[in-house]
Design brief:
This protein folds into four domains: about 1-170, no CATH class; about 175-280, no CATH class; about 325-380, no CATH class; about 480-595. It is of the alpha+beta class. The strands form eight sheets. The chain has a six-stranded mixed sheet, with no helix packed on it. The longest helix has about 40 residues, at about 405-440. The chain contains 14 helices and 27 strands. Helices cover about 30% and strands about 20% of the residues.
């Protein structure tokens, strides 16, 4: 066995470093593998993944391997089993974690370290003598980061977290919230303290209400609580050390920190700080666009009723044919009106006077008779029943038609339309009965001769509609149509409908055995499951899809799809799993043997 050795000066020697210990999580077995990439399992020869042993800092960053400084095993990263909390080989709990900014190998240091080992992590989280993956020394500018996505804290030289993508090269500054400032501060510079009234100083306590941050220039003390539940939290713990213009419930933001100096076993307060409360903003309600209202219908202008006053008689208007003058106001009013539309005076009195004097009423022209139906907005005085039903019972002028004539025309039109509909219905029914009778019964003139089947078929085809044969010919279903239907069902599927969609996908896969897109969709559906075996089923489907894509010359197409879905449907599969690295390598090299079993 050849491993990395150290020279007399204590530096790592690359001479003879040709072997490394590797653990296969699938077979639960460790073995020695040559120090070259990609790494294959010794048991079945399947691909475990690739390691950038040269430390070329290839982008984008992909977390694929981890190394335990105690058991000295390399192992593919599995965030679902232990994450960054324990070593998957020796199951020791990790106390320090380092992420190399060159080869992206994650190194663990246990809280029960061994005395003799090749690589270790210092108290600052830096590897000594170098990174076990690329064998390069650690960067001088290291950042400590607490990643909420994996619930772990690690030290790295990267400028941004490859998991949550938070910037790490920006130093915390005020004003800042307590949670954000403490998250960006290294754990070695944070000490939990409480105020001791006997000594008048902040002393270290594990569950203290304050945190002392030991900056190089000036130490500060911050509240440990990132939020206040009520204003009472401020007055009970922090009012003697911080000023707050409006204490209330909400997130704590430090405008100016409180300064302390180290004295003896504690820290003495030298300057009070200033904080403010950021209240939680209510979620905005979705704005519903107002419904489009139809434009208002035009309303016929009503004639203004004349004021019951005695106006000054205007000068007589020039005479118009078919008009008569009002005896009250002198306006020329058409003969069709019974009242003056200016002063409201009855025109019947003038009519009676003209008849008694032997004068004939003015003649009504045809155009004036047509105008009677057009003036629908004019309100006429109701007539007695005898004047409309018995026109000969009075000697008045025949009444002009109004709304009644319009209603009669509408009624007549409705009756005519009803009769026409009934006539068409009867005609179509009689034709249908005649056609069915001619098909069902043979002619009565030749009862002894049987009707040939050809004649019946010809008669039916002559009377049948031409589009009967065309409706039976359905459009051919293409794989794209089936894929689109299954994709829509998958995206809108409920947990109870997953089994039915799996059956539909399996049926379509048998119809198109060379199309990789259907097992690819099945992998997306399996990746959404909450069971422990969901990810295993998803990778099995992806391996089947990769084999089909490689055999049909569509490996690059599937590889592009994986890059697109890596941040979407396959986000849980792509986070540092060796199966994902194996799948990508097989597609890049177009080698299905790398997929394993």
């Amino acid at each position: 066995m050849l491993r990395a050795k150290y020279n007399l000066n204590g530096h790592l020697s690359l001479k003879g470093a040709t072997k490394m210990r590797v653990f296969c999580p699938e077979h639960k077995r460790g073995f020695f593998a040559p120090r070259q990439s990609p790494i294959k399992c010794e048991t079945r020869g399947h691909l475990l993944g690739e390691i950038d042993l040269e430390g070329q800092a290839v982008t984008p960053v992909e977390l694929g391997w981890q190394y335990c400084c105690n058991c000295e095993h390399f192992c593919p990263v599995d965030f679902d089993q232990y994450g960054l909390q324990r070593c998957p080989v020796c199951t020791r709990k990790s106390s320090l974690v380092y992420l190399c900014d060159r080869c992206y190998v994650i190194s663990f240091e246990s809280n029960t370290p061994l005395q003799t080992k090749n690589f270790t992590l210092t108290a600052d989280g830096a590897p000594q003598p170098s990174c076990p993956g690329c064998l390069r020394p650690a960067s001088t500018d290291l950042h400590e980061h607490t990643c909420d996505d994996v619930n772990a804290t690690f030290v790295t030289g990267l400028s941004a977290c490859p998991i949550c993508e938070e910037r790490l090269d920006i130093a915390p500054a005020f004003p800042s919230t307590v949670a954000s400032y403490l998250k960006r501060t290294r754990a070695a510079n944070k000490i939990n303290v409480t105020f001791d009234y006997e000594t008048g100083a902040f002393v270290p306590v594990e569950d203290g209400e304050f945190v002392v941050v030991t900056n190089p220039d000036q130490a500060i003390v911050l509240p440990r609580a990132s939020k206040f539940a009520t204003k009472r939290d401020f007055y009970e713990f922090y009012q003697d050390y911080y000023h707050c213009p409006n204490p209330d419930a909400g997130e704590v933001q430090i405008v100016q920190p409180a300064f302390v100096t180290h004295e003896g076993a504690g820290w003495a307060l030298t300057g009070t700080g200033l904080l403010e409360i950021i209240k939680e903003q209510p979620k905005p309600k979705p704005v519903v666009p107002p419904a489009v209202q139809p434009p208002p219908r035009p309303v016929a202008a009503k004639r203004e009723e004349p004021v019951a006053t005695t106006p000054t008689p205007p000068p007589p208007a020039p005479a118009q044919p078919g008009a008569r003058a009002c005896v009250d106001c002198g306006s020329m009013i058409e003969a069709k009106y019974a009242f003056c539309w200016k002063c409201g005076h009855s025109m019947d009195e003038e009519h009676k006077q003209s008849v008694s004097n032997g004068r004939k009423p003015p003649t009504m022209f045809m155009s004036q008779a047509i105008d009677l139906d057009d003036e629908l907005t004019v309100q006429h005085e109701p007539r007695p029943l005898s004047s409309t039903m018995l026109p000969w019972s009075t000697s008045r002028t025949p009444e002009t038609p109004g709304r009644g004539s319009v209603l009669k025309l509408i009624g007549i039109g409705f009756v005519a339309l009803t009769l026409l509909s009934l006539g068409l219905f009867g005609l179509l029914r009689s034709e249908t009965q005649t056609a069915s009778a001619s098909v069902a019964a043979p002619p009565a003139t030749q009862p002894s001769q049987p009707q040939p089947t050809v004649a019946i078929t010809t008669e039916v085809s002559r009377n049948a509609p031409a589009e009967t044969t065309t409706t039976q010919q359905a459009a051919p279903v293409t794989p794209e149509d089936e894929l689109q239907k299954l994709r829509e069902k998958r995206m809108s599927a409920k947990p109870a409908e997953r089994s039915k969609i799996f059956q539909a996908l399996a049926k379509v896969e048998r119809q198109y055995p060379r199309d990789y897109r259907f097992p690819y969709e099945r992998a997306k559906l399996a990746a959404r499951g909450s069971q422990a075996s969901s990810r295993t089923e998803a990778f099995k489907a992806l391996n089947v899809a990769a084999e089909k894509a490689i055999s049909t010359g569509k490996a690059n197409e599937m590889l592009n799809g994986l890059e697109t879905d890596k941040a979407g449907d396959f986000s849980k599969l792509a986070q540092g799993r060796y199966e994902w690295s194996r799948l990508v390598a097989a597609l890049k090299r177009k080698d299905p043997s790398l997929l394993g079993e």
